Amino acid sequence: MLHEALPPAGLLEVVAPYDRSVIAGVETANADHVDQALNVAYSLYRNKDTWLAVHKRIEILEATARIMTDEQEHLAVEAAREGGKPLVDSKVEVTRAIDGIHLCIETLKSHQGGVVSMGLSAASTNRLAVTQKEPIGVVIAVSAFNHPLNLIVHQVAAAVAVGCPVIVKPAEDTPLSCLHFVGILRRAGLPSEWCQAILPESIAVAEKLVTDERVGFYTYIGSAKVGWMLRSKLAPGVRCALEHGGAAPAILAQDTDVDNAVLKLGKGGFYHAGQVCVSVQRVFAHKQITNSFIEKLAAYAKQLRIGDPTVADTDVGPLIRPAEVERIHSWVNEAKAEGGVCVTGGSASSETCYECTVLARPSLNSKVSTTEIFGPVICVYEYDDLDWAIEQANALPFSFQASVFTNDINTAMRVYKRIDASAVMLNDHTAFRVDGMPFAGLKQSGLGVGGIPYTMEDMQVDKMLVMNSNEL
Question: Which of 217, 265, 433, 455 measures 20 to 30 Å from 239, CA to CA?
């Protein structure tokens, strides 16, 4: 979707992560394309006569939801094929994405401004103050591969809803769902210049896009290394939100319903082959239930069907790239060499897929214990002192979502109060999320609060009008 006057910089081949077959070719952008896109977006923002009225944005979003509903099956297959998430889960992603569009509309209708209290002091007498929402400026949205449609909705639809011109850079591995969504927005009535998609030809060109002084807000989902680096180079005054990953902990108390915990944590750890920023990674189980939990979790892992993500009965698909299979395997082997026991899995099932793996009692110093795995590996540790388990859960420089399994309110509240996390799930896995809730990485795991209503808030400013009249 590049400017017609400029020839593309090149062509990026998009391949299916499962069998590495070529799906499509996508045009890439150079520095001139980036400059042109920023010029278009910034000019729109500076000319307030061209801003889209709220009712028009609502109409566009309503039409977008209708088109997505009509094309739901195609969107799910496309997302599964390019991203590797099994079709059953990709269908859920598309449903969430459509719900996200409706959430944008609902938020837009209910958050238009407010009244600021006046008359509470002599200095504020005879005054009335109100606020209205205005778009913050040009939004640059840099997205990740693991939810190729729903993450784009969170970043791009939110920007469209609040009236910000947006330039989106999808992940190189999964640009097709993004490009399809941008096309849907345009079919729904959004003028093309309000949402532009760009795939930079290099890291330097991508950096130019993000760090330009014409940017008003930068939203990034991806690796912490890249996110924090780009944040350090933002132009003065640019606001941002970063969403990285973690090594999500779950604590199982002695009274845990082990069967329930296995179902919940197994799903939360092996869903999308563990390629989720809040995927279950570190499970601290009380010594009275550790062996039972490990045995049952291993049995759960063994029965999961690994294979082609576009096939209806596949439970777990591929890793996004073969290099990730090699990396995960090296980490698992390192954990075994350092004392961990591989109860099940521990091998690649193909060039692109890795077995669902359960590691028992790995060293707390192994990579699998200290760094985000982003693969289908769950580590189980044994404890007899709850506070020790909490201390270990808090020992890393990451903090996102966590969980605790117990039927005792005091245990639940002790973990909730003491564990480092922005959200704690009781008797559920760490990856639980609905799109209206706050979603925030702490420490090195991110900056700001995600979730559609919160993202929309970040992309707006409260512009206040103070009126002075003797009649007030």
Answer: 433
